[in-house]
Write a structure and sequence with these properties.
single chain, alpha/beta
C-alpha cells in the first residue's frame, strides 16, 4: 500500500520550454567556481532567474513557478553558514576514521593471505584544530587523502591476489564437487540450476554443471546486446577522474547559487529539481535494529529516493554532446555486510546467540532484507510507469567482498558462490513480478573472478524456472556485457521517457563522498561525479553541510522534510508486497 503527500508541480517551466534544463558539455559552460550568472535551474527563493543561456535552452525570462518558491529550510537551526575551518575539520575526522577502518581490514587480509606484515600507519594524536590555520588544515587533509590513495591501492592489489586464488580454488573444486554430486545423485553444494530448452548442447552442458561459471561466450537462450563487449570503460587515468570530479563540484556550486562547494545546502538559491520522490518504508521491519532513519542515517534501510537526472560523461568519462533527455535514478542502499572488518550491517545479521566468527551469519534474514529493498524499488518503478529498468549486481561487490573476515564459513569460495547465486535468485524473483511491459536491462562485468561469479549468479537465476514467472521475465530481459549503466540509461532515454537506473546508494549521504578522491571504483560516487544534476539534487536532499559540521544527528524525518522542502512527493509504504 502506497500513499502520497506533499505534491507540488515542480517541472512546469521545463515542460513549458520543451527542453531539458541541463545541457552541459564541459567546463566551457562554467565561467568560474562562484559564478551563478549561468544557472540553468529555477531560483529557490526569488523571482525568475536572469541569465544568458546557450541557444536552444529555456528563455531568459521564465514565469514564476511553484518550483521557484521554496519554503524556509526544514531545519532552520542547522542552516547556518559553517566556516571553511569547520568543514575541513569535519572532513579530516571522517577521513581518519575511514583510514583506521581500512588499515584494520588490511591487517586481517594480510594475515589470512599469508602476506608479509607491513608497518602500521601511525595515527597521530588529534591536533588542536583551533590552533591550525585553514592552510595547515588543508595540507593535513591533502596528506590524509594521499594516505588513503595508498591504502586503497594496496587493498586493490590484495583483492586481485585473492581473486586469483579464488579462481584457482573454484577450478580445483570443480572435479571434486561435481564428482561428489554425481555420487549423491543430487545437486552440488554450489547450487543447482534447471535446464529449460532453447540451448545448444554445449550451453545445456554448461548450465547443467553447477561448478561452471557461465561466461559471456554464449547466449544461453537470452537476449544479449554486445555493443560494448570488449571495449574499454572508465577514465584513461586518475588525473582525468580528478579533473572531471572537480569540474562537477564547480558546476554544482554554480547551479545551486552557492558561494563555494561545501556551503550549507540550505543556503542554495537555485534548485535543479524537476521531479523528486521518496518512498519511505513504514512496515514493521523498518523499526528493527538500525533499520530506521535518523542519527547518522538519512535513509531508512528500506527507503528509496527517486529523481530525474541526465548524464554528462560517458563510459570513458568524455563529454556527452547534444541534447540529453532526462531519466529516473532510484537511490536504494544495499545491506553492507562485508565492505570491511567493521561492515556496519553485519552485527544486525548475526545469528542470535552466536558470538563466534564461524557460521554466525544469518543468511535467511539477509536475503529477506535484500528482497524487501528491491521490492520497494519495484514499487517505485510501477508507480512511475517505468518502461526500462537498468539493473546491475546490486550489493554484490564491495558489500560482500570481505564477508570472510567476519564469518570464516565464507572463506570457502564455494560457499561464497552459493550465497551469490541464492541472492541472485531472490533478485530475479522480485524482478519477475514487474509489469509485463517493463524491460529489464542487466549490466554485467566479466573482468575478474568476483565479477564473473556475480554475472554467473544472475545468468543462472534467469535460467531457473523454480519461480513460475521467471520464464516470462526472460522474454523482456536484455544482457549488456561490459555495459555501463549510466551511459545505457542515457541512451535508452533517447527513445523512452520512462527509464529508471538503479543506484547502490549510501544511507548516510546520497553519493557518499563523491567529491573526495577516495572510493574511485564505487558506483554511487562515480555516478554522481558523472552527472552534475544527480550530484546537485543529492546535495540538497542530503542537507549537505549541516550534518557534516557538528550540526547534530539527523531526525528520523529528515529525509521527508528535505524532500518536501524541495517540493517533491513523499510516499509511505505501509505493507511489504514481497
Amino acid at each position: 500500500a502506497v500513499s502520497g503527500s506533499s505534491w507540488l508541480m515542480t517541472s512546469f517551466w521545463a515542460s513549458w520550454c520543451g527542453v531539458s534544463t541541463n545541457s552541459w558539455e564541459g567546463p566551457e559552460h562554467i565561467s568560474g567556481p562562484f559564478d551563478t550568472g549561468a544557472a540553468s535551474a529555477p531560483p529557490m527563493g526569488g523571482g525568475p532567474a536572469k541569465e544568458e543561456r546557450p541557444a536552444g535552452e529555456c528563455p531568459v525570462d521564465r514565469p514564476p513557478t511553484a518550483s521557484s518558491k521554496l519554503a524556509p529550510p526544514p531545519a532552520p537551526d542547522r542552516s547556518k553558514s559553517f566556516t571553511g575551518r569547520e568543514r575541513l575539520v569535519a572532513d579530516i575526522k571522517e577521513l581518519v576514521k575511514k583510514l583506521n577502518e581500512k588499515e584494520e581490514t588490511l591487517i586481517t587480509l594480510r594475515e589470512q593471505m599469508h602476506q608479509p606484515a607491513k608497518k602500521m600507519r601511525t595515527t597521530p594524536a588529534p591536533p588542536d584544530y583551533n590552533a591550525l590555520a585553514p592552510k595547515d588544515l588543508q595540507n593535513l587533509l591533502d596528506k590524509l587523502e594521499g594516505e588513503m590513495d595508498e591504502v586503497e591501492a594496496e587493498e586493490t592489489e590484495l583483492h586481485k591476489l585473492r581473486d586469483m586464488e579464488s579462481s584457482k580454488k573454484l577450478s580445483r573444486a570443480k572435479t571434486k564437487v561435481g564428482a561428489a554430486a554425481a555420487m549423491r545423485g543430487g545437486p552440488s553444494a554450489v547450487g543447482a540450476s534447471s535446464t529449460p530448452g532453447n540451448f545448444t548442447p554445449e550451453e545445456a552442458q554448461l548450465i547443467a554443471d553447477p561448478t561452471e561459471l557461465l561466461s559471456q561466450d554464449y547466449n544461453y537462450g537470452l537476449v544479449w546486446d554486445r555493443t560494448f563487449q570488449g571495449k574499454p570503460m572508465g577514465p584513461k587515468d586518475e588525473g582525468l577522474r580528478r579533473s572531471r570530479r572537480e569540474g562537477t563540484k564547480r558546476k554544482v556550486a554554480q547551479e545551486l547559487g552557492l558561494r563555494s562547494f561545501g556551503d550549507d545546502g540550505f543556503n542554495a538559491r537555485y534548485s535543479p529539481v524537476i521531479e523528486l520522490h521518496a518512498w519511505l518504508d513504514r512496515t514493521p521491519a523498518s523499526t528493527v535494529g538500525t533499520a530506521s532513519a535518523g542519527g547518522d542515517y538519512l535513509l531508512g534501510r528500506y527507503d528509496v529516493v527517486v529523481t530525474k537526472v541526465c548524464a554528462d560523461l560517458d563510459r570513458n568519462w568524455q563529454w556527452i554532446k547534444g541534447q540529453k533527455p532526462d531519466f529516473w535514478v532510484a537511490h536504494a542502499a544495499a545491506i553492507n555486510i562485508g565492505e570491511s572488518s567493521r561492515a556496519p550491517d553485519f552485527e544486525e545479521f548475526r545469528k542470535p546467540g552466536n558470538s563466534t566468527d564461524t557460521n554466525c551469519f544469518d543468511e535467511e534474514r539477509y536475503y529477506e532484507a535484500m528482497e524487501h529493498i528491491l521490492t520497494n524499488v519495484r514499487t517505485a518503478a510501477k508507480v512511475l510507469h517505468i518502461s526500462d529498468l537498468v539493473f546491475f549486481p546490486f550489493g554484490m561487490g564491495a558489500f560482500l567482498r570481505h564477508l570472510h573476515l567476519l564469518d570464516k564459513n565464507f572463506d570457502d569460495d564455494i560457499q561464497m558462490l552459493r550465497l551469490r547465486r541464492r541472492l541472485a535468485n531472490t533478485f530475479i524473483k522480485v524482478l519477475a513480478e514487474t509489469p509485463p511491459q517493463m524491460r529489464i536491462h542487466v549490466c554485467l562485468i566479466f573482468s575478474d573472478t568476483e565479477a564473473q561469479c556475480n554475472a554467473d549468479a544472475l545468468l543462472r537465476a534467469l535460467l531457473n524456472d523454480e519461480h513460475v514467472k521467471v520464464k516470462e521475465l526472460r522474454q523482456r530481459v536484455v544482457i549488456h556485457p561490459e555495459g555501463d549503466s549510466l551511459q545505457l540509461a542515457q541512451q535508452l532515454a533517447d527513445r523512452s521517457a520512462n527509464v529508471m537506473l538503479l543506484n547502490g546508494a549510501n544511507r548516510c549521504l546520497l553519493g557518499n563522498h563523491w567529491f573526495a578522491g577516495r572510493a574511485r571504483m564505487a558506483i554511487d560516487e562515480n555516478l554522481h561525479r558523472r552527472s552534475w544534476r544527480m550530484a546537485a539534487i543529492s546535495y540538497l536532499v542530503n542537507g549537505f553541510g549541516s550534518y557534516q559540521c557538528g550540526g547534530g544527528p539527523r531526525d528520523p524525518d529528515n529525509l521527508k522534510k528535505n524532500v518536501e522542502w524541495l517540493q517533491g512527493r513523499v510516499h509511505d509504504i505501509i505493507t511489504a508486497n514481497m
